[in-house]
Amino acid sequence: MTLRGAFEAGRFAVTAEIGPPRGADAEAITRKADLLRGWVDAANVTDNQGAHVRMSSFAGSLLAMRAGVEPVMQLTCRDRNRIALQSDLLAAGALGIPNVLLLTGDHPRFGDHPDAAPVFDLDSTQLVWAARSLRDGGTLASGREIGARPDWLVGAVENPFAPPRRFRARRLAKKVAAGAEFVQTQYVFDVDVFTTWLAELRDLGVTERCRVLAGVGPIRSLRVLEFLRHGVPGIHVPDQVVRRLRGVPADRVAAEGVTMCVETIQQLAELPGVAGVHLMAFGYERGVPEILERAGIAPRPAPRPAPRPALTGSAPGAVTTEGLGHAG
Amino acid sequence: MATDDLTADAAARRGWPRPFRPRIGARLGYLLHAGLATNRLYARVAAWLERRPRAYAAFTTVERVTKQELFGCRMCGQCALPATGYTCPMTCPKQLRNGPCGGVSASGGCEVHPELPCVWVVAYERSEQAGHGADLDLLQRPVDQRLRDQSSWVNYWQGRDEDLWTAADAEGARPLLHRELGLHPVGGVR
């Protein structure tokens, strides 16, 4: 049950997300890992997502591994220059982190330290390029040779819904040319737009070289709906989704949101070129098994036994929005 | 021009990057570029300028003022304008050289400055309209931070810009990442 294994076997892959805590609390990672273990091939460990300070994705990835969940270590260009980025990539390789996901990152302006310096020494495409040069070329961005080469899978992100839409498939094609082997997308709430983007990817030959994991997640309250529509740059929620969620009684919104998420996964799984889903269920990790089960996605092969009973996640009704960011 | 605009312009030059909409059309940009295209005379002028610091400073000031007014230039010293529909990517708050981030609003607004259009939305439109759409598929190498405040025209005439970008499918264009600037990485050469 590794992400690489799922890709190689052509099995529908599932990734989820683990947001590290705001604090030195290793248990917070373990608790989320317990809820996901056996249901996902890997879980992203976010890198100070939304430009809010959290435990580092590197430490979070190690903790997730220790808890039996394969991590996808996210690394953004926001806080580190090319020296620190490459150093962290080597560290991830040395400690056996099997996947990295390389992104631009949210601007600090929207985080809890808007007074911080934005770095952006490399962009995400250049970072993917640097990663592949490390792994396959055995060289740093400077051209200097390295010793032992890392062995992680290189991932990237794309947002098929943000303008200029006609350029989004081409932008991913650039990242794939630079070396991205899989991509996770921003939330798909509009399957039609996603399908158009996917067709463009196929025309560019991108789907043959890069596995596409479609981003999905349940909208479990009208407050989250409004936040997604207006609070997070780059998320596209079409009107029919808004109408459907507003059309049910208040106590049914959560269930309807989960049902919509299940239906979206089922639609996406039918599309040629979709290798899996990336399930973002912030604060609702406990619902991941139910969503996958209802969507007809079996638990992962040979799941490891849980070392302890699964704890519940955040209290029902609690809404976590801080972890949300855009796919940059 | 209103005072507010002047203030915004000044902020754009001195502070963190803010999206800048070019003041001349892309086609005119390509025309002007043709007039600046490298030839042996320009190469000799560039070499002469580099030997004379005061002349170089004066020349760089002319370049800065011109390109700031027209494109919001931030003097990265390695001009990407010919490959971006003459829209400066260094005015993107994230200084992205390979395309837009995922935070562009539905109306095409910048994530950081929603009232301003995303640099890359503008670059896409201008490139397409000028028949240079394929330029945006080029892979842009990382910025060489040492070249800031240098004259990109001089660097271009001296042939140092040739490795700024490469075709996405050019397998022969190794090394892909680092540029051959005649400047060796520290420790890379013994």
TrEMBL record, chain A:
It catalyses: (6S)-5-methyl-5,6,7,8-tetrahydrofolate + NAD(+) = (6R)-5,10-methylene-5,6,7,8-tetrahydrofolate + NADH + H(+). One of its GO terms (biological process) is tetrahydrofolate interconversion. Residues 298-328 are annotated as: Disordered. One of its GO terms (molecular function) is methylenetetrahydrofolate reductase (NADH) activity. InterPro entries: FAD-linked_oxidoreductase-like, Mehydrof_redctse-like. Pathway: One-carbon metabolism; tetrahydrofolate interconversion. Keywords: FAD, Flavoprotein, Oxidoreductase. GO terms for cellular component: cytosol. Pfam families: MTHFR. Its cofactor is FAD. Belongs to the methylenetetrahydrofolate reductase family. This is Methylenetetrahydrofolate reductase.
From TrEMBL, chain B:
InterPro entries: DUF5981. Residues 58-145 form the Methylene-tetrahydrofolate reductase C-terminal-like domain. This is Methylene-tetrahydrofolate reductase C-terminal-like domain-containing protein. Pfam families: DUF5981. It comes from the Bacteria.
